[in-house]
Amino acid sequence: MKDVTTYLNVSEQQGAAFFGAPDEGPVVMLNLLRFRENADYSHAPELAPDAPISGKDAYACYMREMLPLLQHSGGEVLFSGTSAHFLIGPATETWDYVLLVRQSSKASFLAFASDPESQRIAAHRTAAISDSRLLPVRAD
Q1: Which domain holds residue 65?
Q2: Global pTM?
Q3: From CA 37, how far away is CA 59, in angstroms rounded?
């Protein structure tokens, strides 16, 4: 049977495990994103544009508004680009967008993610994506 679970936000258990472990300096977050065909602002109607937009366009709005806050927190986008099928991996699994974001530490990432303005802007991300993966990566 195929797993149809989608992942939009960090779970309480995964957050506790990640942030509860020692903070060992910079961390890069590998983001894999699948966009909704049409953005869903039902959770945040006050942010909805006047006319319907695609998930891709809602994510572009999220990035445009979030980037200054990310940079102010000491973070940076290292890479962003489109994607399709894996060269090695499940042939049926596809991702629309790939993003590598570097933060100077887990503490700076937590402060960034906990900021009320970041949380408000994150509603665009929620409207935009139908599924995602976020993999923290550390240099050896």
Answers
A1: 25-137
A2: 0.90
A3: 12
